[in-house]
Design a protein that fits this description.
Elements lengths: L32 E4 L2 E4 L1 H11 L10 H16 L2 H6 L15 H21 L10 H15 L6 H11 L2 H12 L10
Helix pairs in contact: 2-5, 5-6
The structure holds glutathione.
Glutathione binds next to loops.
Length: 190
Amino acid sequence: MKEIEFQENLWPFDMAGGNRHFEEFSPTGKVPCLVDDGITVWESLAILEYLHDKFPDYRFWPNDIQQRANARSVSNEMHGGFLDLRGECPMNMNRRVEALPISDGARKDVDRIVEIWDQCLNNSGGPFLFGEFTNADAMFAPVVNRFDIYRLSDADVVSRYSNAMTSTSPWHEWEEAGRTETWIVEEDEA
Ligand SMILES: N[C@@H](CCC(=O)N[C@@H](CS)C(=O)NCC(=O)O)C(=O)O
């Protein structure tokens, strides 16, 4: 989204083998992991903070201190929470769109996410949570996919945000790349 050059190294999951091959480049043995100029950064939110430090002019976080605090708060909420939703509704670019019955816990997560999107978009005017694309949108992008494929909400704000996100060319590239994968990770099939 910020048109910064990067190289993606695709290491398919090997759940049966415990993904031990990830340990070759990632201290936690998990992905994502960024390696830049000999610096290794793991944990998605730490990677986004690193990008903010490295490219201060790209506005990875909003300029305004109040908005930046809000963006960091909702991003941390995503990073550390919504476990029911994340467990029951894995992100999947290849799944056919179909409603999925979800637990009360996951419904509570959905309601809170709709509330966040509603407040942020009303406040900023959109198209992204804080106006232009920021780290907060990067954190919520996988949830846009979950809302779409499992038809989790028919709130106006959800289709509005989903349209903004899924009409970007990085989204198309991401979706296309996911759809060309031929392997199935059983753990990530709802
Ligand atoms: N809190 C970490 C989560 C990392 C994580 O759980 N990654 C998953 C894929 S989304 C993974 O690598 N799983 C492989 C495994 O647990 O063996 C982050 O935000 O980066």
